[in-house]
Amino acid sequence: MKEPAERAGCLEAWLHNHADAARRSLGRRLHAPGQTLILIAVLGFILALPAYLWLLLENARELSAAVDHEPRIALYLDNTPETELQAAVERVDELQGVAGTTAQSADQALARYRAGLPDTALLDWLDDNPLPAVIEVLPLERTPEALRNLESRLRQALPEATVVSDHEWVRRLQALHRAGTRVLLVVGGLLALGVMLILAVAAASELRERNEEIAISRITGATDRFLRRPSLYTGLWIGLGGGLFSFGLLWAGVHFTRAPVESAAAAFDLPLRFATPETQLGLILIAAGLVLGWVGARIGAAVALHADSHP
Amino acid sequence: MIRLQRVTKRFAGGTEALHNVSLRVDAGALAFVTGPSGAGKSTLLRLIARLERPTRGRILVNGQDLETLPRRDVPGFRRGIGLVFQDHRLLLDRPVHANVALPLEILGFRRTEARKRVRASLDKVGLLQKENASPQTLSAGEQQRVGIARAIVHRPALLLADEPTGNLDPALSREIMELFLDFNRVGMTALIASHDLELIAALGRPMLHLENGRLEARQQPPAGKPA
Ligand SMILES: Nc1ncnc2c1ncn2[C@@H]1O[C@H](COP(=O)(O)OP(=O)(O)OP(=O)(O)O)[C@@H](O)[C@H]1O
Ligand SMILES: [Mg+2]
User: Fold this and answer.
1) How many independent structural domains does chain B possess?
2) Is A4 an interface residue toward B (CB < 8 Å)?
3) Which residues of A touch B188 (CB under 8 A)?
4) What is the pTM of this model?
5) Among A25, A28, A220, A223, the residue to mutate for chain B (most B Cβ within 10 A)
6) Which of A95, A231, B7, B32 lies at a 20 to 30 A Cα distance from A171?
7) In this structure, is residue A302 part of a structural domain?
8) How high is the ipTM of this complex?
């Protein structure tokens, strides 16, 4: 049928509709702030939790990178006199992938140990030197692969030696970090799904409250797209609020827990610095909030508008 | 403009509101539907606006068979229609002007333009001074006129009015009918259900008389006739 002549152009009408829906939904939010604030808080808490855990993991990873810079492999040799130790060092030096070695005989080790004790009388009771000789190996390459290969070569060359790599715990840390990231992904994903459904239910109930308006609008020719638009904007407003709130929570949480976390790390001799969340993380949280808010509202609208469909 | 071919509407409870109704309203015509309470007038108008689906028979509006009208085209179809409800159906949570603006909002009118149109429309039904009132504070006749203002504000090509003057005094009823005639003169097709036989008889427009869901010919000027 004939369109009215003064009707705005198609794009302009569309833009106008959007601006109108955004303004209207914001107005309605500000008019009933209680429910809105609760939804923003729920979204904020649920976004802040995985972000906080992620920050912890991220800081721990930097820690492993910091320790990683000079991996060493130590060979402990029991009952090895000075001459045999020398031969062993030469054998190790010739191995592929060794950058250098430092050796310490059992006697030297004992002397150093003795020097570190306040009272050496106890050591004099011992007949034999209980300490092993040590060869510290500096590897040429630092990749986990190369280190593993070097370790097995060392074991072959000196079967009697105990091979201990301090790279080992870095590897464990990395494995833990990977596992932690995976767990975080699952937990974060489930939380996100949960909060999305909460927002969906909220959007659906809000649409049901507008039920008479929707019925009349439908009769007047409103599309579902038009009817759900304000809800989608509401979802975006809540998402924006939730994202900002979660960033604030995260910031406060890090500041509140920084001192105990860092001193706990220090007790384990770990140079952990609990870094303040960066703006980038804030942007990610806001983006996550917007996506969850929008998708949640979209699901809620689909449910609510489908329920009272027109003939 | 409107064609019904052997349309029957039976409701879930078994009531047959319309039985084998065939009729035609040409584009540019203004026709009345009369008949006692329960005769099926509202049902007929609701079928034409596709608010109900017929049990049997075919309905064509503007050459479009409503049975084959795709679901996604229904909103667009309805945007070309102005509907006046027997029970007004105003939104009580917003002022009169916002109620009247609803069709313009859906059509995406600019705010200033919409405002102008709403005022013009309210002026036509004599309610400009009630622009900012809440519908709840209006009399039944005033509410009815707000409903009329809302139905014509977007200048629809087809007006379906269900007893639009049911609550109005004779002078006001006549005024509203004159308004419809004005719109009709500039091309709006209209189908109006009414009890006010005296008033509409004086207008000399085609009348379709329903009795117990069946159409009876009373008067047959060329523009609208039982087919
Ligand atoms: N949704 C419905 N479900 C069941 N029966 C209905 C429904 N709507 C209308 N009817 C029945 O259909 C018949 C015609 O109703 P309709 O509303 O079309 O009459 P009307 O001519 O508009 O009457 P009035 O002048 O009182 O408004 C009535 O018997 C009514 O009870
Ligand atoms: Mg009726």
Assistant:
1) 1
2) yes
3) none
4) 0.74
5) A220
6) A95
7) yes
8) 0.86
